[in-house]
Amino acid sequence: MSETTNLSCEKNPLSPSDLPTRQLIPSLVSTFCFVGFLAFFLWSLTKAEFSLTELWQGLPNMGVIVSEMVPPATDRIEPMASAILVTLQMAVVGTVIGVILSLFIAILAARNTTPHPLVYQITRGIINFFRTVPDLAWALFFVASVGLGPFAGTLTLIVDTIGFCGRFFAEALEEVDPGPSEALNAMGASSLDRIAVGLIPGATPSLINSSLFSLEKSVRSSVVLGLVGAGGIGAELAVSMEMFRYDQAATIIILIFALVLAVEQLSSRIRNRIINNR
Amino acid sequence: MSETTNLSCEKNPLSPSDLPTRQLIPSLVSTFCFVGFLAFFLWSLTKAEFSLTELWQGLPNMGVIVSEMVPPATDRIEPMASAILVTLQMAVVGTVIGVILSLFIAILAARNTTPHPLVYQITRGIINFFRTVPDLAWALFFVASVGLGPFAGTLTLIVDTIGFCGRFFAEALEEVDPGPSEALNAMGASSLDRIAVGLIPGATPSLINSSLFSLEKSVRSSVVLGLVGAGGIGAELAVSMEMFRYDQAATIIILIFALVLAVEQLSSRIRNRIINNR
Amino acid sequence: ETVKLAVTDLVGLEELQREFGAFVNVLEEKSGYDIEFLPVTNRTAAVEALRFKKVDFVLTGPAEYVVIKKRTDADIVVGFSRPDYFAVIITMADQGYQTPRDLAGHSVAFGSVGSTSKHLGPMQALADYGVAPTTEIKAIHTKMPVAWEALKRGDVAAVGMNHLKFLSFRDKEQQNKGMEPGAFRVIARGPDLPNDILMAGKHVDQKIVAKMKSVFTDHSQALVQAILTGEDNQKYSGMKFITAVKDTDYNYVRAMYATVGYPEYAEFIGD
Amino acid sequence: MPALSVKGLTKIISTTPAARALRSRSGRVDLNQPDFIFKELDFNIQTGESVAIIGPNGAGKSTLLRCCLSLIQPDLGTVHLHGKQISQLSGSALRKARQPAALIFQKHQLVTRLPVLSNVIHGALGGAWGPRYWLHSLASSETRLQAYQCLEQVGLADLAMRRCDQLSGGQSQRIAIARALMQKPKLLFADEPTASLDPHSGREIMELFRALQRSLGLTIVFVSHDLQHALNYSDRIIALKDSRLALDTRTQNETHNSLARLFSDNYHE
Amino acid sequence: MPALSVKGLTKIISTTPAARALRSRSGRVDLNQPDFIFKELDFNIQTGESVAIIGPNGAGKSTLLRCCLSLIQPDLGTVHLHGKQISQLSGSALRKARQPAALIFQKHQLVTRLPVLSNVIHGALGGAWGPRYWLHSLASSETRLQAYQCLEQVGLADLAMRRCDQLSGGQSQRIAIARALMQKPKLLFADEPTASLDPHSGREIMELFRALQRSLGLTIVFVSHDLQHALNYSDRIIALKDSRLALDTRTQNETHNSLARLFSDNYHE
Ligand SMILES: Nc1ncnc2c1ncn2[C@@H]1O[C@H](COP(=O)(O)OP(=O)(O)OP(=O)(O)O)[C@@H](O)[C@H]1O
Ligand SMILES: Nc1ncnc2c1ncn2[C@@H]1O[C@H](COP(=O)(O)OP(=O)(O)OP(=O)(O)O)[C@@H](O)[C@H]1O
Ligand SMILES: [Mg+2]
Ligand SMILES: [Mg+2]
């Protein structure tokens, strides 16, 4: 920066050739990957027999099924309400325990908090494994060891929660602004303190979001609980669908929807307070 | 701050009574909520028949099932590999389209980008609705309108993806540091520019994480694709489990696990480059 | 004393999955035991629970019986006889599929894998008519409501299901001012399927087994009434618990397993 | 028509519970309450003027600049920017009113994950729009060249391709200045633009501003804690203190000492 | 034993592709390459000294401070902190070596979502640990009192309960200083501690440092762009320029002008 030449754009004309080359095409490798992916996508698209006209023309048929859902049936509202309570109870236990375990696992599975790269690899592997093994298999394991019933269902929910929250918590920790955490490092704070004070406050909105999503997911998870005979609203819904009582199904969907909205309202409020201090 | 009194801690002794009261118990309302929740949790815990000793004693039984999984069966490796390809194709189409739609919906459904609070409420409602309506109902809708097969499966995957990504994208946008976005506001940039340039770069790691998780979820989603007769690896897995061929199931789990690991490696690399510029 | 009773995959008795209060009350009253009743949506889970002694009794279908018998030794307590319990293959009347042979090369929808009356039964029926279900047709496994919609649209040429289920579908169509019963055609049906069954795990005390057996046979009518409390279930009346059930009655089911490509469950065990 | 006209501008510290109650009560504001950031500010700034705003930490200088661009809403009073009452505007009218005014933030507010050149190009988004201004690799050569020239003006052309989270404090401050220059403003608000610059660069930047003011008729409003800069590079000095306008004079009437006195007995009251 | 001893310290700009290649090639560093932040720095700082580090933007002052606490690894050379080679340490030994040294960051690095008082209490985490130091509402009265006194020292005791994202630039800078005081350091690194402070507060803070140095024997290393501060409040001045140690003298040998000359012909080369 010299005092004489830079006061106005006109005085020191640059020519376009002085500019560094623009890197629109970042590298051969990434171009190759991108083109490969695009080709795969298009190929898949043809395989999926994608056709918007067909979807459009079929919409009236969809209407027929919807019309069978209204008016929602109210004849079983009482057992449904009690089923939803049972489900909520199992979901709360499974999610709370799962979230607590996930937090510990996530600390081991985030690049910026893991004590050792090997621990990182192993815990990531475990979290992925929890997700990959299907619910039915988990249900079998737990049925074999603790029998049919709510306990096996809760254990499966815990595993589900860890598979989901473990990953999203770890990612949330990795995304936190490293500044405050560096400051704590500089003063010689221990890792635990650094995580508790430098990272968790930054990740809190994400943690809350994932946790409450997980709770909601547990409430919705008919499959898991039905597998082990734990009942709940999912079983009600499955039976209603199976018996073509779409009007009953509609009632259950509305009940679950109300619950989902409530959970999301809660999430949104807490998050808003933390993010915007409002 | 005066020049004479503040040079050392000793000179201007404060007594503990000068301190503002500590707000350990934030307010009556939150205390009440917390106690209520705790009570509900403990009540649920008893309902869930939680018992660690039972779990511990049952572990050997789990081992029996695991032992039936090894050695993984290799007799159907070829149809399995082709099933995984088919699944991947449907998953890619469903997820890519779903992610693109989700991004638009999320922009309408994030507090800091929505054009109007009403739009916010409506889009949030739609996203929640997509999640609440069970897969079987979506399958019915789509089968009624476009028929059995991969297209219906893809549509169901799209709905699933929007239900998940729509929410997580919106939350990610809300969590971005508002600074750069405020700077763009100050210069009179349009909302679109502000979102593209001020918010998306901040949210990218989260967006990538949710998107790739969603892809992985689609690959794993046996239920959705199986329901509409679209087959794929999930259906294979379900059949193996239903037919007690745990050795075949193990093979499929290993195949899916490899895929999940690959997707996560990809995610981790891209994210790391974006977060740490490495 | 507490007795754990699981029930799984009883087609037509879905209501029992959620409304079992009356049934359990009758059972407790008549037997004097505390009954822990567990409706399980998945047969695999029920079977494994019995194998690992986590449940004492399982009320289930013939296909599950064969598997349980193969994987773990279990006793038959009582059979559960139902009228009109057989598999049918349904087509649309105007589509021109007249015989099972006409289905060759087309898609046919079935229920979940391993279900007696929605998968094994219909496939065996096809095989009985000389159509190899694993090679000559394209089998699609899905939920019955989805299969029904697919049949109406013509995505599948036929659906294999339980006869009673078919009747209820037809009734619903009529109620909703949809298709008339004449729009559907049954082109194959199997023989009446072996009975659903109540089994006891080997670990269960013989005294309890005997007690349960007597309760089921002596109070068959009361129990059936309790099952049928829901208004949707009335059409299944006429069921009965019976004691004279032999293992060999299930050899037809074993043959089904061979037909659908799982010969490991097809070995006939001694009679 | 003054470039900027502030009348009766009042802002409460929005988070104190007292303040919230105060405001919610029938929407009227009680001026006798404490907890004001500033209260009833009045001043006009003419086109082409260079005005320095000084005042102790927390006096509300940054808040004032934010109010001037309607980034936050004042609780009372009005701001007219080039004759338009900015808090009344919304949508594209607001955007249009903001476009000719650039604001250099105290905390720079760069998009840290994008390269320097892209950040500078974003300055053009006030006047133009669309993907061609989102990333430098999508921009036209013309735009890139302009951005480059703005970078030259702050002396950092060789950092054009560096990601913004790898800059030193002073470098990132200068990128923020380049971005503001890219906007081709008629009115420049600068919040402590030289706070983390070394003495030489700081002087350069102030001289650049002065030169732009003289050659292009730019109106400049800058906040500074460097009294020497305030004295050397402004036509007029405004001081905020104790939530009031403590001073509003021509620069030539003031000396370093007279200004310093403003700060000296500021605390403990 | 000097409080801080730096020998042959070299740091490459880690992100240029050239630099990456340079380092990966058998782990040796070629000193003739460009792209150094700084190269072969050597100096010792005695206990109780107050040292000012000056230099143009991007000269590597902040990077140097980070290297001194082993927050980033230098590419060559060693740093001894109170006699211990800090880059050789890890785990609890590293923590113990860092504890007596406090660093005030240029960008403050407060935990913005927590209140001021909690942030100040975090300063105690170097010496202690556990949940009682995480939030002010969990802390003992004693700790709270200490934190409060540190806040008093920077004049912001009345903001104790404010959330840190609602502070002005200068306020947040002073909270960072209070946090460093809470650490009760023997060695204080301060990266432009007065950059966004008003003239009066800036002087107060520097005088506070000076007083602590004199009364408690604190060693102080501060970076400043305010040459007057460097001259008034240091015993010794070190200047970084063109990736070298350009100057290392006793303060009394220098004048404002002699220092200013350092910066003047710095650019365009
Ligand atoms: N987001 C906020 N919410 C509530 N109060 C705030 C917020 N930001 C700033 N304040 C308060 O408003 C007052 C004015 O802040 P402002 O940032 O305008 O000060 P300033 O004059 O720019 O100070 P500095 O010289 O330190 O930058 C301060 O007391 C500050 O604590
Ligand atoms: N994270 C980083 N990665 C790569 N280079 C960096 C990084 N941070 C800073 N640099 C570069 O290293 C050099 C020294 O930066 P540093 O922050 O130490 O400068 P400084 O002397 O503190 O400058 P200032 O006075 O502006 O604060 C600069 O050229 C800067 O661009
Ligand atoms: Mg400010
Ligand atoms: Mg610096």
Question: Distance between the terminal alpha carbons of chain A, to the nearest Å?
Answer: 45 Å
**Heterogens:** adenosine-5'-triphosphate, magnesium ion
Radius of gyration of chain C: 19 Å
Strand content bin of chain C: 15-25%
Number of domains of chain A: 1
CATH class of chain A: Mainly Alpha
CATH architecture of chain A: Orthogonal Bundle
The radius of gyration computed from the alpha-carbon positions of chain A, rounded to a whole number of angstroms, is 26 Å
The low-confidence parts of chain C are none
Distance between the termini of chain C: 34 Å
| Side-by-side strand order of the widest sheet of chain C | 2-1-3-10-4-11
Helix content of chain A: over 70%
Count of β-strands of chain C: 11
Q: So what's the oligomer here?
A: heteropentamer
Low-confidence stretches of chain A: 1-12
Major sheet of chain C: size, sense and barrel closure?
Answer: 6 strands, mixed
**Averaged pLDDT of chain A, please?**
85
What is the helix tally of chain C? 10
Mean pLDDT across the residues of chain C is 86
Strand count, sense and barrel status of the largest sheet of chain A are: none
